[in-house]
């Protein structure tokens, strides 16, 4: 961080300012140095949060709410800071965070899903915003919608239209439909999902250092439906940093001297550049 580097050179800068009046005019005053030092802890936290949520080798979206919540709590604890300039900066940061991320990111449904499906949190941060029951209901609603899409059509009208000359045994048809209805009720995926959710919430919370994807891979047999939703939501990145890095790579490939490269070749070069480190080459 730039401010951290400046603070590390504080004594050298102050010494230089004593011997150079022109340089001294552009240097921070003693009060400004104090403000920088007071601001450093929470500015460093913001930096670390940004770096953490920009990672591309692990799930990140589930950490949005916890990280913003933690930052918000730390800022609230310092809002009556003894230094006036620092106090003003903290209040401005709190206001900006609340405007950009209402409810510390819990207003976004995707963040809530991910937080709920992380076995380290299990929606812990959603309790304060009374969102956990909404997420459970939303997951059950999604499962019901999926089931409706998969339901086969078994009406007698369709059967008659497909073969109008066939004599229909209505008694057998009713028995068949009754059997299908009982089978559907007994194997209701929404009921299974509801049981999975209750068991998942009742089980022990995973350790803080747990690899979330590995955890769901191991627990897939125990939570087959819920694990599908974990795979769906935990693969979403918290920021666009990864795609921006790819665009940056493409910008280094397609330069003023390489404007005639075919699109297919650009794609291949970028792909190789982004993945070459993952390939183990034995020379």
UniProtKB/TrEMBL annotation:
Domain HAT C-terminal dimerisation, residue spans: 196-276
Compartment(s): Nucleus
Keywords recorded for this protein, A-Z: Metal-binding, Nucleus, Zinc, Zinc-finger
Entry-linked InterPro entries: HATC_C_dom (IPR008906), RNaseH-like_sf (IPR012337), ZnF_BED_domain_contain (IPR052035)
Entry annotated with the keyword Zinc: yes
Pfam families assigned: Dimer_Tnp_hAT (PF05699)
PANTHER family: ZINC FINGER BED DOMAIN-CONTAINING PROTEIN 39, ZINC FINGER BED DOMAIN-CONTAINING PROTEIN 4
Name by which UniProt lists this protein: E3 SUMO-protein ligase ZBED1-like isoform X2
Organism (species): Hydra vulgaris (Hydra)
């Amino acid at each position: 961080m730039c401010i951290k580097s400046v603070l590390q050179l504080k004594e050298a800068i102050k010494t230089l300012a004593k011997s150079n009046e022109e340089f001294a005019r552009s240097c921070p005053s003693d009060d400004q140095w104090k403000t920088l030092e007071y601001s450093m802890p929470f500015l460093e936290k913001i930096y670390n949060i940004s770096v953490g949520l920009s990672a591309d080798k692990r799930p990140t979206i589930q950490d949005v709410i916890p990280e913003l919540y933690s930052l918000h709590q730390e800022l609230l604890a310092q809002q009556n800071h003894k230094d006036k300039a620092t106090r003003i900066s903290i209040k401005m940061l709190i206001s900006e965070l609340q405007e950009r991320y209402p409810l510390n990111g819990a207003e976004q449904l995707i963040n809530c899903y991910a937080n709920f499906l992380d076995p380290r949190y299990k929606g812990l941060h959603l309790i304060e915003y009374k969102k956990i029951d909404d997420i459970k209901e939303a997951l059950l609603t999604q499962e019901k919608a999926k089931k409706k899409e998969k339901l086969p059509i078994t009406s007698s009208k369709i059967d008659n239209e497909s073969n109008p000359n066939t004599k229909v045994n209505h008694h057998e048809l009713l028995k068949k439909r009754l059997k299908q209805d009982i089978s559907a009720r007994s194997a209701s995926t929404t009921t299974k999902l509801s049981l999975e959710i209750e068991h998942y919430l009742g089980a022990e919370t995973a350790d803080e250092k747990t690899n979330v994807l590995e955890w769901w891979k191991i627990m897939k047999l125990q939570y087959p439906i819920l694990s599908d939703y974990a795979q769906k939501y935990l693969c979403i990145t918290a920021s666009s940093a990864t795609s921006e890095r790819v665009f940056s790579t493409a910008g280094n490939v397609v330069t003023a001297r390489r404007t005639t490269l075919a699109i297919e070749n650009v794609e291949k070069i970028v792909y190789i550049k982004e993945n070459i480190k993952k390939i183990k080459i034995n020379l």
